[in-house]
Amino acid sequence: MKASENILVIHTDRQSCQMILDTVSQMGHAPSCAHTLSEGLQKITSGAFALVFLEARLPDGSGVEGIAKIKVNEFSPEIVITTTQGSPDEAEQAIANGAWDYIAAPVSPALIQLHIDQILDYRSEKGLRRSSLLLDRREIIGNSKPLAASLGLLAQAAQSDVNVILTGETGTGKELFAKAIHANSLRSQGSFVVVDCTALPETLVESVLFGHARGSFTGAYASQDGLIKQADKGTLFLDEIGELPLAMQKSFLRVIQEHRFRPVGGGREVTSDFRLVVATHRDLDLMVRQGKFREDLLFRLRSLVIKLPPLRERRDDIKDLILHYMDQLYQRFRLAPKQYSSDFWNVAGQYPWPGNIRELIQALEKTLLSAGEESVIHSKHLPTHIRIQVARDRVQSPAKDPEAPAAQLPAPATPLSLKEFHRTAVSAAEKQYFKELMDFTAGDIADACRVSSLSRSRLYALLQKYQLLPGQKSH
Amino acid sequence: MQIFHYEVADSSEGPRLAAALLAAAPGWEIEHFTRLADFRERMHAFVEPDSIAVLAAANASELREMQDLGDLIQDIGIILVLPDWQDSTLRQAHHLRPRFCCEKNDSYTGLHQIVRKMVQASH
Predict the structure, then answer these.
(1) How large is the ipTM?
(2) Which residues contact A199 (CB under 8 A, 6 or more apart)?
(3) Domain stop point among A256, A280, A309
(4) Same domain, A183 and A297
(5) Cα dihedral value A158, A356, B71, A364, nearest 10
(6) Which of A115, A384, A425, B46 has its CA 20 to 30 A from that of A157?
(7) A394: in domain
(8) Strand pairing category for A376-377 and A339-340
């Protein structure tokens, strides 16, 4: 999975510009465009761009000469010069000035795509090297590729002061990332101030964020600084910003732009030098289209987007995560460390963890409760719904399992009819399934009915057919 | 979800804060603690997801002690009742990543609304 990057196109010709923008969008990145050099330079100062497609000759100046102005930006985006009339001298000057490449017409979508891929791969590796060397990762556990891509962006975010949006499903660790950005930034000595937008009732948002003057409403016995002021010299983290009431979004936009605001009932404006990090599990673009989120606010926020991968896309990290959180839980519950059986790792590794790391931690707590004094943790100690899900998935996609019965069928000397082959394969697969089912449920018929979704009478009939009832000898 | 309330035994705020919590979460069994050591001990046992702890710090020293709870309360929604609204107090408070803070002589209207919303969200 590649992280979404901001890519800017500075081009006079609207048709060429649109072609590049479309290609960028189709590749899952965030495109922006400008039609003059000055407009482009202005956009670069307010966003974290990884790449700029820059036309060589623009109405208000030379793109080639503008390279230096772009490279001094804190994100130092790569620059590809595009031109309708290529010139060897201009190409030499562009490369000497630090451009990644100089491409002359015709510029096709395939060529654009190739440059984007190469450049982002290069930057991603560069970011990863930097992150692995320098980052204080705190509680961010794992070394999978999808996580490493997010950590590379975290390192970029920590080295700058731009606004950051953390996106990802519930439970993917957005607050941990926000804390790590703060801890690795120059503001780490300031406060990390959390605004939980899901917990704040609409009536309280304004006074909690902006603070209030004494007597501004019933119960306001004294003036109080709000959270924005409390984040002065530190980081303001708005968790679930999608829940921020629409009416508040306008006021907040001004705060982001000017870092000035007026407390509720206050006569004077107050300033606050905060760095903004926001998180959401919602699709803010969709909310903009639905009129539930302000487009101008989203534009301001989207300087750097870090998408956190769901746990199912970073299965390589599951073992490390389990070991880490189990260690924490042993300490918390004052338990001696336990061992883990292979069936525990199998089930934990196969479950899709839709609630991500939060669900994993909760499941581990329940697993420890269930294991009690036992020294080895087995899959049977995991919450039942997890075991059921894994058992159902195994049955629904047996071909994914290399040990699946169908894969073990011996090849007949003379090919069977297709119907006969089906019958034999299904019988072998069913028999294997019911063996595993009875092992999994330790022969508990009620549990086996629940896992298999079969009625008790149907289950008995099939167990009898395959000679798997207690007392029957299986062949 | 479970609700915990810590407040030192001789706090003058005690009945008011407990009453505000009760009104915000009617029908919920709130676990009350009057010694921080007892609250810490409770955190060593199982806590349901999305739980809330309303912690009233009598003074700056007690607020520092609360920070020592560390990992034990990292998955709990913390609401802090602070001894004052001084910058130094607020800076300390943010180490606990509270969902909401108010001062001890507050009307608790805000606290009431926040707890009510968190309780409703847990259903």
Answers:
(1) 0.94
(2) B77, B99, B100, B114, B117, B118, B121
(3) A309
(4) yes
(5) -150
(6) A115
(7) yes
(8) parallel
Mean pLDDT lowest for which of A67-76, A160-169, A201-210?
Answer: A67-76
- B77 contacts A192? CB cut-off 8 A: no
CB within 8 Å of chain A, chain B residues 94-113: 94, 97-100, 103, 105-107, 109-110, 113
pLDDT tens digits for range A223-266: 899 999 999 999 999 999 999 999 999 999 999 999 999 999 88
Whether A404 shows a pLDDT value over 60: the answer reads: no
Structural domain that includes position A296 = 145-215+223-309
**Cβ contact (<8 Å) for B94 and A192?**
yes
Out of A293, A309, A325, pick the residue that ends a domain.
A309
pLDDT score of A266: 83
Same domain, A153 and A298: yes
Counting the structural domains of chain B, the total is 1
Give the C-alpha separation, A414 to A332, whole Å: 63
> What pLDDT score does A134 carry?
65
CA distance A351 to A141: 19
Across the interface, do B114 and A200 touch by the CB < 8 Å criterion? yes
Cα separation of B78 and A329, whole Å? Answer: 20
Say yes or no: A395 and A267 in one domain. no
Counting residues of chain A whose pLDDT is more than 70, the rounded percentage is 91
Nearest to A191 among B43, B85, B94 (CB): B94
Interface of B with A in 49-88 (CB under 8 A): 49, 71-72, 75, 77, 85
Residue A249: inside a domain: yes
Give mean pLDDT, residues A432-439: 82
Question: Contacts of residue A234 in chain B, CB cutoff 8 Å?
Answer: 94
pLDDT tens-digit series, residues A305-334: 899 999 999 999 999 999 999 999 999 999
